Each structure stands twice: as structure tokens, then as C-alpha cells.
């Protein structure tokens, strides 16, 4: 098994005055169908405890992710998963859809009475913070959303327990969603491929055409 993620990196924010840290990760970004999903797992930096067996969701078997999901939810101070649909991905682009999904999860965290002091986001690009755009009156306005400081870290899901935990939550919930969509459109094999571009999935698109849950703005037939 891979090296277990720790809370060592998260501890760096404690001397800076942070208490609640939100680990954030996404799943479904590269799929051809279904939503993109963003998980958040909040840890209390003043009362941190490790959680055994948690890894980046891609390194875990489905049965292990499903076993760990309720444990992660119990371990977290607060947790949530937000989704953005294939239609939203087509309309907003993948970055806009990630922001929408992430902020849906963010507001669920706030609704639980927890306001994170800092966000630890997997990757090198901050897609979570509000998009700042000029208004019709040339004033700079920000879309409502996550207003906490966001710290990005490449491969955070491999080394940071809060982010790995968030990835498990997002993966389990998205997989369950794709299982439900498979019942509606079984020809695409979403119970197995979860909307990703396998050869059989692409062949089904080629012969049957896209479903309402496909990202039609994408090139669905070419790898």
C-alpha cells in the first residue's frame, strides 16, 4: 500500500492563527459524462487525529472507499460534497463548473456552523475562489463564494490527510450518482466506467449518440 498521508502539512497553518482547515479535492474532471464533484473535509488544527487507511481515492478499491466514507464523515469537523452537472460544464466551462460545485460544498460547510480559516486545495490552480469580473458600471465585483485564503499544493491528495479524505467523499458520492444514471442509460456502462472515456463508452456514444448527461461541448469520440 502507498505511504499514508499525514497532517504534517496541515500543521503548518496552526502557527499562522488558523484553527479550521478545509481540505478540498475534485473528481470527475476528465470524464465524458456525469457531474464534476468537489469534496471538502474540515479538520480542527487544535485537535488533530490521524485516520487509518485513508488514501487518495484513486489508490483505493471501491469497497474500501465505501467503508471509509462514513468514517471520514465522523472524523471531520464538517464535510460536504458539491456537484456541477454536465450541462453546467458545457455552459460554464470546466473551471466555472468546478467553482460552482466547490462553492455548493462550501456553503454546506458554512450551513453546518463551521467557517474554515484556510483552504488546502489539491493542484496548482485556485479554481475555488470567487471569480472577479468587471460589472456593467466598470466596478470590480466578485461572485459570492469561498472567501477564505486558498493554498494550493500539487499532489496534496497523496500527502495531506484532509485532502485525501475529501477525495474519498467526492469519489464515493459521484460513483453512487453514476450508478443511478446507469439505471436510466445502461448502454454506456456507467456502472463500470463512471462516465470516463473507455473504448466501450466511446463506441456506445458513436452508435447511439450522446445522452442528456454527456458533456456535449467536449470531443466525445476522440481520446
Automatic annotation (TrEMBL):
Keywords: Cytoplasm, Endonuclease, Hydrolase, Manganese, Metal-binding, Nuclease. GO terms for molecular function: metal ion binding; RNA binding; RNA-DNA hybrid ribonuclease activity. It is found in: Cytoplasm. CDD domains: RNase_HII_bacteria_HII_like. Its EC number is 3.1.26.4. Pfam families: RNase_HII. InterPro entries: RNase_HII, RNase_HII/HIII, RNase_HII/HIII_dom, RNaseH-like_sf, RNaseH_sf. SUPFAM superfamilies: Ribonuclease H-like. Manganese or magnesium. Binds 1 divalent metal ion per monomer in the absence of substrate. May bind a second metal ion after substrate binding. GO terms for cellular component: cytoplasm; ribonuclease H2 complex. GO terms for biological process: DNA replication, removal of RNA primer; mismatch repair. It is an enzyme of class 3 (hydrolase). Belongs to the RNase HII family. Endonuclease that specifically degrades the RNA of RNA-DNA hybrids. This is Ribonuclease. It comes from Arthrobacter globiformis (strain ATCC 8010 / DSM 20124 / JCM 1332 / NBRC 12137 / NCIMB 8907 / NRRL B-2979 / 168). The lineage of its organism: Bacteria, Bacillati, Actinomycetota, Actinomycetes, Micrococcales. The gene is rnhB.
Amino acid at each position: 500500500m502507498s505511504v499514508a498521508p499525514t497532517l504534517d502539512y496541515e500543521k503548518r497553518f496552526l502557527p499562522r492563527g488558523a484553527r479550521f482547515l478545509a481540505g478540498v479535492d475534485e473528481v470527475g474532471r476528465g470524464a465524458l459524462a456525469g457531474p464534476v464533484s468537489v469534496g471538502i473535509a474540515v479538520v480542527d488544527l487544535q485537535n488533530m487525529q490521524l485516520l487509518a487507511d485513508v488514501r487518495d481515492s484513486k489508490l483505493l478499491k471501491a469497497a474500501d472507499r465505501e467503508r471509509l466514507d462514513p468514517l471520514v464523515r465522523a472524523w471531520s469537523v464538517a464535510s460536504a460534497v458539491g456537484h456541477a452537472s454536465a450541462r453546467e460544464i458545457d455552459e460554464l466551462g470546466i473551471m466555472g463548473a468546478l467553482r460552482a460545485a466547490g462553492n455548493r460544498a462550501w456553503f454546506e460547510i458554512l450551513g453546518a456552523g463551521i467557517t474554515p480559516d484556510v483552504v488546502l486545495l489539491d493542484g496548482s490552480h485556485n479554481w475555488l475562489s470567487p471569480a472577479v469580473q468587471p460589472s456593467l458600471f466598470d466596478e470590480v465585483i466578485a461572485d459570492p463564494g469561498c472567501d477564505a485564503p486558498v493554498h494550493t499544493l500539487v499532489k496534496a491528495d497523496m500527502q495531506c490527510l484532509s485532502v485525501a479524505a475529501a477525495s474519498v467523499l467526492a469519489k464515493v458520492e459521484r460513483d453512487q450518482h453514476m450508478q443511478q444514471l446507469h439505471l436510466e442509460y445502461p448502454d454506456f456502462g456507467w456502472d463500470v466506467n463512471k462516465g470516463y472515456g473507455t473504448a466501450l463508452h466511446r463506441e456506445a456514444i458513436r452508435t447511439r449518440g450522446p445522452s442528456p448527461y454527456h458533456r456535449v461541448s467536449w470531443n466525445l469520440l476522440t481520446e
